[in-house]
Design brief:
This protein has about 170 residues and is mostly helical. The protein has a domain of about 100 residues. It has five helices and four strands; from the N terminus they run E-E-H-H-E-E-H-H-H. It is flat, with a radius of gyration of 27 Å. The two termini are about 35 Å apart. The relative contact order is 0.05.
Length: about 170
């Protein structure tokens, strides 16, 4: 799919590498047109994702219903599974955990040999950012920070839209 930027004769293709945009073609296009096209593409993507998500939700519901029925049949027959010419159904159990009391659990972790193995390793970015702000940009020991810079686009507010519409009248 290609998108023609109005009045420019420039095509932006969906197979362009997002990391290496064709700067030469886009560099001659005015800012307002690039922003307008960006928002149109983003809105079109959002609509497609929403439609896709709705279709997938229907399929997920159908799969869930069939899975529940197969589980019911397996349990009713006191089997560990069902084998057919089209595939095999087997019963699987997944253990899911949550913490009822972080204070008690953390105290137990500290006292237990290898207790920290009960936790996933992830650093909370917001806490690091707050620490850096309070400590002149210094990082907590053993922490690395990677920054990603991107241009983000937002739609104008209603007030800004009215100003643009009024200015286009002249």
């Amino acid at each position: 799919m290609a998108l023609l930027i109005e009045g420019s004769g420039t095509l932006i293709h969906d197979d362009m590498d997002a990391r290496q945009p064709e700067v030469s073609a886009a560099s001659t296009i005015p800012d307002d047109r690039l922003v307008r096209v960006y928002i149109k593409i983003r809105d079109a993507k959002k609509a497609k994702v929403k439609a896709h998500d709705a279709e997938v939700a229907v399929l997920d519901g159908q799969l869930k219903s069939i899975s529940i029925e197969l589980l019911r049949r397996t349990q009713e027959r006191h089997n560990k599974g069902i084998t057919t010419d089209f595939g095999t159904v087997y019963i699987a159990e997944t253990l899911k955990t949550s913490c009822a009391d972080w204070g008690v659990f953390y105290e137990w972790i500290q006292k237990t040999p290898n207790g920290f193995e009960f936790l996933e390793q992830r650093i909370k970015s917001g806490s690091v950012q707050s620490y850096m702000a309070k400590n002149a940009g210094a990082l907590p020991p053993g922490v690395n920070v990677f920054r990603e810079i991107e241009a983000r686009v937002r739609k104008p507010s209603t007030k800004a839209k009215n100003l643009v519409a009024d200015s286009e009248k002249f």
